[in-house]
Amino acid sequence: MPAIDREALEKEYRKLTARNDDIIRQEATSKKEYATFSRKETSIITLLQSLEPTLQDMHELKNNEPRLISEETIAKVPGLSWYNEQIKLVQESGDKDDFDVPPELRESYELFKGLALLPKDGKSLSE
Question: Record's superkingdom (predicted)?
Fold first, then answer.
């Protein structure tokens, strides 16, 4: 009987290690996809800054309230109208400081900050 138990344990061990390897591969893939997403996000920010130079000035405001995207910019990029609706929702929300940041987002933020951007992305942000 001990041979059967050992065999079952070895089978379960192989099954668990295979699952662990699978999860490790999924994590690596997710990190690569996150890096790609972050680079695309940086490119979008650069594009928005070129379309509407006042976005740069908004960042320097002390109260830094979200503003609607200008009609001129929406005329050039109609897909941004959805974001205007989201900004309106933020403006209408009552208590802006009352929220918790989940630990999952902190890890993503640290990953984003440690991410090496493509040379052209870093250059356009520093200008």
Answer: Eukaryota
